[in-house]
Amino acid sequence: MSTSQSMTMPKINIPTYKREKSRVVRLIILTLILAATYWSMSGVEFSVPNLIKGLPFMWDFIRRMYPPNWSILGSVFVQTVITIQLALAGTIIAAIISLPISFLAARNICGDGWLVRTMTFLFNADRSIDALILALFFVSAVGLGPFPGVLALAIHSIGMLGKLFAEAIEGVDKGPIEALESVGASKLEIIRWAILPQAIPYFISYTLFRFELNIRVAIVLGVVGAGGIGFLLVQYMRLFQYQSVTIVVGVILVLVMGIDGLSTRLRRAVL
Question: What is the pLDDT of residues 81-131, one digit of tens each?
Fold first, then answer.
């Protein structure tokens, strides 16, 4: 190619080309998001006029909640304690079961073979079944009350805690493990002296976080008859006792915010 021909070739501005390509990609993504939003809204029949039309009924509902019925505070307190017990028992059972089997899902303990993959699959499958579905199953099996709620929370929590515990085990510093392996330590000795001292703070933190979540879930489980303050809320709603509903909702807010604050402080202290 001659010098004159090379001088006449068009020059491509690479930064400009990249900017144009990036702009087209962003436009495509924005179009897809808008299309998905419209598709979702139309599918659920979202309607602003209907929402505005329903505002007077919402206001009427709120108006009927005043004044609060303070006379039920004692029974609400009892059900609140049951809700805490339900969440605590479910979390403790799940932590006890999840801790030993989480080592079977850790790659730095069991390698990357079929056992780790099987345990990971079981944890994912367990988390895919909502606690509400499990509660319905156990209510039909053992009857109404807090017991089916405990079973539902425990089983549902195993998947999450098992996965988090396994990740904590895999994330420990490898130095102490390699040091013990070099002197011929067994797997149990490595777990006891190299892994547990590093992972225990994370085990405690994740268990506290799961307990915080289980408080919320335990309230919802009352809808299907699993006991606690959620069951009381459903009762008052069905009986149109809105002044009693005010007390229950207020106690739920205090309970959830209090547990959240306490759990956050404890987790920070542990870590």
Answer: 999 999 999 999 999 999 999 999 988 888 888 888 999 999 999 988 889
Tell whether 254 is covered by a domain.
yes
Give the CATH number of the domain where residue 154 resides: 1.10.3720.10
In a domain, 226, yes or no: yes
Q: What pLDDT, in 10s, does the model give residues 214-257? A: 999 999 888 887 778 888 888 898 888 989 999 999 999 999 99
Q: Say what the pTM is.
A: 0.81
Number of structural domains the chain divides into: 1
Q: What are the DSSP calls for the chain, one per residue?
A: --HHHHHHSPPP-HHHHHHHHHHHHHHHHHHHHHHHHHHHHHHTT--HHHHHHHHHHHHHHHHHT-S--GGGHHHHHHHHHHHHHHHHHHHHHHHHHHHHHHGGG-HHHHTTSHHHHHHHHHHHHHHHS-HHHHHHHHHHHH-SSHHHHHHHHHHHHHHHHHHHHHHHHHTS-HHHHHHHHHTT--HHHHIIIIIHHHHHHHHHHHHHHHHHHHHHHHHHHGGGT--SHHHHHHHHHHTT-HHHHHHHHHHHHHHHHHHHHHHHHHHHHH-
